[in-house]
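Q: Convert this sequence to structure tokens.
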Amino acid sequence: VDLNIGDIANVSAQIGAAQTLDAITVVGTSVGSEVFSPDKMGTGTDVNRETIETLPSANANIQDYMRLDPRVAFIDRASGSISAGGQNPRYNAIRIDGVSASDTFGLEGNNMPTRRQPVAMEAIEAINVDLANYDVTITGATGAVVDAVTKSGTNEFHGSVYGTYRDGDWFGSDPDGDEFNGFTEEENYGVTLGGPLVKDRLFFFANYDKFTQSAPGVDLNGTALGQSDSDFTLDDVAEAQQIAQEYGFDAGTLESDSDTDLEEYALKLDWNISDNHRASLRYSNLEQSKLRINGTGTSTASLSSYWYQHDKTVESYVGQLFSDWTDTFSTEFKASYRDYSAVRVIPTNAPSVRIYFGGTEDAPSGDSLYLGTETNSQANVLQTETWDFFGAGTLTLGDHDVKFGADYSSNDIYNLYGPQVFGVYTFYGLDNFRNGIWDTYNLRTPQAGESLDSIAAVYKYEKLGLFVQDQWYVNNNLTLTFGLRADRPEVADDPQYNDEAYEAFGYDNSEILSGDFLIQPRFGFNYMFDTERPTQLRGGFGLFQGSGP
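A:
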């Protein structure tokens, strides 16, 4: 029986007595496509491997396939942000092999920890996009639930070598005649290999993927230096570089390629323990590095000391165990660990400097030049460690499939964000910069006797979920689902009470939603009409809790 992601099939066979049988062949034929499955209560789109291989995808990311669902649309192609049903991209849940692969902190516009999903598309077997699923196991999403399943090895060795190349010169000009400047060249290549370690018992699948993109960096025509009425020139920039050198730091240059490098690899093992038990284990690692260019606009320009390299790493382990204990009772257990880090690597530990070339000494204004360490990058490190556990049992009682279980997630967060810890200066003109006569100066420091690490936000967010569901096959036409889910979020430590916050907003900031269960009833129905052509009415309602803040 071949099923799509999230589908359930009940196959009944009645065998009668006969005089002599040399062999028995049982063939199951669906009464229609998966769209008319009696177990579907909501709406969704299935994307199989054949579709993935057929559909061209220049970016080789999961978003290109999510938008095959007509209710899904790009809202920002640069970041890969996807909206489902008009919802914010952060309301979506992205899962790989049934385990969350979404952004664990919430800063990324595409709701993934990096530019692409943690596993290369060449290693993904199928995708399901669901916008209305009333199953009680659904949690952490009020938009779309996107499930992807990775490839597995088989009894035959199989593999692939692939690669793509794009050149910026291949793109045409826009209607205004401006040439394409998104990137200069882009390469993506990789290899996959799968097969048996022990025939019929133990299998492996491995993949490696490398992505590089070179962008042209700063276009000076789009900065203050490219304007005909600019307040400063390249000679002024050279003088600012020389003054910074006298202060003891390298201000950098105006030119650098804005490169992106992404490397990922994964290994999956599948083990048929017995006829009734099977397990899988997957390891994946993704490393991404991208140069971020700040401080450029029609009235500003910046030197490379003001830019930063954004390095991200995602390492994950996923284990699953499926067991059929009897003909009527089965269980499923999952456990995963994910380590995520995002670090801004700065070229120099210098204060942020902004030099104005217009206005007056008492009121600097006009065009300006940035150098030194950008304000928000002076201390900026994010690390999360996430554990997820899931356990469920399904018991068949006549016409009822009763599912029950629990899930638990734990997210340990370390967020070091220290703007202005190196200082932030503004100057009027190069002479004042040379003589150390600043217009404004801001500096933030830890409390006396404390280190820089003391300003980091260190906390733990946990969530426990309990669920039970009855799927009732009333007759050949009607299927009903009744479910109940309870989620309890918990934060280890209450925030410290802030008098000023209470006076300003009238709320006690130390009181948070922690330790209380949210009860979420869910109901779904599916009715198949007795018509010549498949006709079905389905729907439902329920309460859903999104991901943690």
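The radius of gyration is 29 Å.
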